[in-house]
Amino acid sequence: MNTTQNLVLAGIDGSVLTGAVCDYAAWVAQKVDAPLKLLHTIDHHPEVADHTDLTGNIGVDSRDHLMDEIIQLDQQRSKLRLQQGKQLLQAARERVVQAGILDPITNQRHGSLIESLIELENDLRVLVIGVRGKVHENQPDKIGAKLEAIIRSLHKPILVVNAEFKTPERIMIAYDGSQAAEKALEMVATSPLYKGLICHLVCVSKDDGKGQLLEVAANKLQLAGGIEVIAKKLIGKPEQVLSEYQDQKGIDMTVMGAFSHTRVHDWLLGSFTVKMLTHSHKPLLLLR
Question: What whole-number distance in Å separates Cα of residue 265 and Cα of residue 280?
Answer without folding.
Answer: 22
